[in-house]
## 1
Amino acid sequence: MKKKVIIEFSERWLKAVCYSSAGIGHASIEKIILEPIVLDTPNLSTSLNNVFKQIGQRKGLEVSVVLSRNKITVRQLDLPSRDPAEIESMLGLHVIRQVPYPKEEIVWSHQNLGFDGLSNTHILLAVAHREMLRNIFNAFTVLNILPESMLMSSQGVIHYLNETIKDKSLLRDAYLVLDIDYNFSDLILVNNQNLRSSVIISQGSEQLKLQQEREKFCAELKQALVVFNNEIPNTKPARLFITGAPYELEALMEDCLKKDFNLKFQFVKCTEPDKFQVKNAQEVSFAPVLGFTYQRKKEDINFTLPEAQIKREIKLKVQQILTMGACLTYIFIVLGATVLVRINQLQSYRDRLLQRIGQL
């Protein structure tokens, strides 16, 4: 089975899952790692190296990267076209209006959420700062590793729920997910199994230890729910799933949600880190990396750096050249062996012929 690694980057932690998968059925998790980091290239490379030391190998791994949602800008756009090439061209014009950075400093990806039946296509646009992606890419380059993909944590959370919620009827209609990480929370709106919108709440498990921050958290959560209602008025989620750091928030959520929004909520605890005795696992959310371990869609947001694409194409060309060289070598060996056999047959025939002539 192919061994794979998924690593999520945040300001303080590297969260990694090493697993084996044959492409069919459930993944077999071999190791879960939580490694402290500082997000600059030298320390990041050191932390990455520590992760691969714990895994026990570097070569032959399929490595994917997950980017924390608080490092990504997410927007929903309605574009008047159904043609993929035209949509791509329109996005190039729209993206510079969505973020306060020059076009040369950003990398974007998108997911087509479908046609509205009238004139517009719903597009989920995700934008990341190029320098952040380059720092991560360079850290892998130092270790001679080329990541296969750079994914967005929010979609990993959705995959985790699809895998762990036993009653699938709860996921048929629109629902919300609140993923609580150590320094922020990600409120996600899901409809038709797709991420429709996402809002960052600035309090995570670390801040929620303080009563004052809990009040701010409740205020931001209510404001985010109002934003969802205004952005997508026809979507009425009736349930909120809470993943990530398992803090005692039941009373707080009761106060925030049921009084004003009449929302049912359900805690979904990540139990996998407990099996591997991961220290400080209760401070962070492993839902994104575990979600991409269990499931992945080709439509998922995937960021691609131009330099990473070039390296990937060079690697593919080298593999093609090596394969072609091996095939040509095999052909030459077979032809050579065939010629030698034929020569040997001719020599044998000549010797028999000379022997018979001598007898005559």
## 2
Amino acid sequence: MSIRVHPEKVIIKDYAYDKDYYETIIVQNTAKEAINIAIVEPENGGKTGFTLVSSNTSIYDNEAIDRVKNNSNKNSKTKLGNKIAAGLETKFKIKFRRGRPVSDDAEASEINIDPSSMAEITEKIGICVNGQVQEFILQAIPPKEDIRSFGDLNFGSVIADQTMRTKTIRIKNLGQAAGSFSTKLISNTDELMIDDLKNQELKPDEEFLLKINFVPSRANSMDIVAQLIIQTNSSGEQQIIPIFASIVVPRLSVEVLPESYCGLGSTSGGGRISTTSEVNVGPNGNQNENERRNDLIEFGTIYSNTSLSRSIKISNNSPEKTTFNASILKDQEGELMGEDGDILAMESLAHQNPKWNKEKKGLSKYDAFEIS
């Protein structure tokens, strides 16, 4: 038909009993000539709660329209309603009011209404253009829950240290009625854990914090493929949240530092000290002097009752903080005095190197410990 209607249909959302709702509808003539426009009352005679309260053009009931339709006189059909010039418009206003149900043993105002028992209502009116009726839909939707989730489950790259990591998803009911949801974890590993929820209820504007725990223990055993499903129970609507995690092995590198590193290389006692050259094998198979070997701590030759110190640097190339143990294998009791990699040694070392995180036994870039 040669009209434009705005809005295309009327939808009253989250309606409440005994409350008035109004909507104005505009009908524009998009033809190049004048047309006759009339409005037909609601199909069910207002029993659904929808009524016509005003109009700039003629209003007819359904019986009158039926009589016109059955009339063989074409002119009487095309002249139905008011004439609207090309490009101009007419308006009408719709009212919706749903009365509160009344029981025999209680006053209407005292009835506690469960929003889930309120029905969705659909009604139709007619817009008659030159005798042809176009249906216009009216809807009233009761309050419903609107359960939404917020947050992500990206654990990133982690090391397989059997330490629990936790992510939190916030689930909130943004609707006007109470609702419930359920959760399900789909995963190819038992390193991910949640509490499966069934029919967890949320009142309007209430939220729930769901924790997902991840305990990586098997490095490079498989690619983690997982997702969390949050389902609204009444509608079956599902929200799927992918879970991302990559498990890697801890990566530490060790470098034997030169004697002059931070002044850590030192001697004590009265004897003279001579050291041997540090030797490494080059690409051509020859030994290159003055190149440090990272698989050998060279003390050289020292006199009795003297001491000599060497330092090594341990770098953490992992994506997270990690821990390690360091110990000295002694050939003869007392000749090598190293820092054992236990907690007591870490605490002792913290006094020498303030960068050491003794509480977490973490390792920052270029932390070094000294052995004697």
## 3
Amino acid sequence: MKLYSLCSKIDENKLNIFFFNAFSNEIYKYIINKNKIEYVCSFNEEKISGEILYENMYLYKNKIIMIPENAYKIAILSSDGNKKYIKWNRQLIFKSFKFENIIWCILKDGVIVSFNLDNYEIIEHSQKSRKLKLLTNGISIQSFQLNFIKGNIILCQNKKIIEFNIITERSEVYNVPIDKKIYNCMYDGRDYWIQMYSNLDIIKLDRKSGNIEYFVHDDIKWGKLNNIIAYSDVKQIENDIFLTGYYTENVYKIDINSRKIKKIPEFPNEYNVRNTIGFGPLFSGMHYVNEQIIFIPFRSDMLLKYDMHNNKLDKLIFQDKNNNRVNDRIITMSMDLLKESFFDLNEFLNYVCNKRTVNE
């Protein structure tokens, strides 16, 4: 079975990284000091049906909060093991983010809904929704790539970056003088690092001056699947910018001095996902702890750790609740409950698309 972890979160003390299996109701944690992965719990009120149950997970005051995608309830796990479920009777969530004690949810129809993490109150914000819709010129919110920075929704489309502050409702538009369309961007506190469609290079946009710099790839190759999206994540760690492969085959680092995007060490030999399904998003998250970057896999049975000081990649094999290795060749949508298995990526994607079409 492959894990299919859509997201991961590290606790404030940097002791544990929590993540969930997208097609089941299970949560796991990686205990950093012990270099060990443990099963945490299952939210058994949600039935496993082959759909992605949760859009995102958040940590707040020693609680884990699961935000629904196809689940019917918000699920909350307290540190004492108690679970609480709150009915969610809204449309499907497109994206969510946490700012202070509020989880802001942007629904697929562009409506903004907030969930208060202290009193569990759910509020629909009609004025904020209207202002966001005006910024998108009536185009579906699903046509945009969204990021979130300290209360700002960052929208990317074509050659524009739009900032919308969820609290003040103020907005700012940046026109980027490039030929390609923008796929996504990351903000490091001063500059935007921009990824373009069908392009392996990265652009740095100075947010104040509007000046741009190109950082070109150093012999990076596209995967076998397609050449639309190069990187699934762009993240600043210390003074470096790291990129994880989407339809490229590795993890990369931007060399600021040479303005080159370079590959960090080769993956372990056992990491054969790239050879079996033609690449695609490799990791759902990367976390920096004690001079190591921990990569949580999206569709693999292997967690990777990059030692920045020694420039070395190490691995940790996933095991299920019965301490059996998660098979790297077969995709099973749940550790022990779902029986659907696939030996081919296209077969798997067709199954998921058909299920979503029927249910939507």
